[in-house]
Amino acid sequence: MAHPLSVAFFLMADGDQEGSNNDHKNPWCVNDPEPEGDEDDNCDVTVTAIGMTAATRIMFGALTNYMSSNHGWDDFGNLARGAAYSRYSNCPSYNGSTEQQAVIDAFAAIGYPTSSSSPIVCK
Hints:
Blueprint: H1 4-14, E1 17-18, E2 23-24, H2 52-66, H3 76-88, H4 98-109
Antiparallel strand pairs: 1-2
Helix pairs in contact: 1-2, 1-4, 2-3, 3-4
C-alpha cells in the first residue's frame, strides 16, 4: 500500500472520484468493508482536484517551509494546510481557498484530519 502522504498528494492533485459512477480513487476505499455513511468512514469525504501544480506547491511548501525536526508525519496535514493558506490566501486573512479545502479533505480522506483550531502561521 502507498504511503498515506503520497495518497493525500494524489487526492489533492486528481480528486477522489472517477467516472460517472463515482468510483473512489482512494485506495483505502477500494473494497471498504464499512457501510456507506459510517461516521468513521473516510470514504465519505469528497476531495476536489486542484491539479498537479497546486498540490506540488503545497506539499513542497509544507516540507521546506513548515516541517522541522520537531514534527512527525501525523503533523503533516496541518503543515500542508498552513502551506496552502500561505500560498493561496491573502495571508493573514482567511478566505477559504479551494486549495486549502482540498488539503483538509485529502488528509481527512486518509485518516489524518487537520485541526481547524491549529494556528496557521504565514511564511
